[in-house]
Design a protein that fits this description.
Elements: E1 4-7, E2 10-13, E3 18-24, E4 34-39, E5 46-51, E6 57-59, E7 67-72, E8 77-82, E9 91-97, E10 103-104, E11 108-113
Parallel strand pairs: 2-11
Antiparallel strand pairs: 1-3, 3-8, 4-5, 4-9, 5-6, 7-8, 9-10, 9-11
Amino acid sequence: QVQLVESGGGLVQAGGSLRLSCAASGSTFRLYGMGWYRQAPEKERELVAIISQGGSTNYADSVKGRFTISRDNAKNTVYLQMSSLKPEDTAVYYCRLYDPYDSWGQGTQVTVSS
């Protein structure tokens, strides 16, 4: 089973930027789509952005124009570039690999202060 490890979270002021990374083990990464999700306290986990194995992307309305998802198949890594961050972006961010095991990372905390 693929292991996913997120990194890049932290504390940032509103208006700032962060780049999250999700590194995957194994050799099948390039075969599957990837997604970034987030879960704020006392809220449901929600989809933030997805990228297909071919590189097509889609975003939640709340992050369009501010977040960019990308992938580097040579490095088995997917990224989430987050700009113009808002306090409401505060959440634990998870990556997900849409493989037969439906693999998830452990999450990385993003906190945006006002």
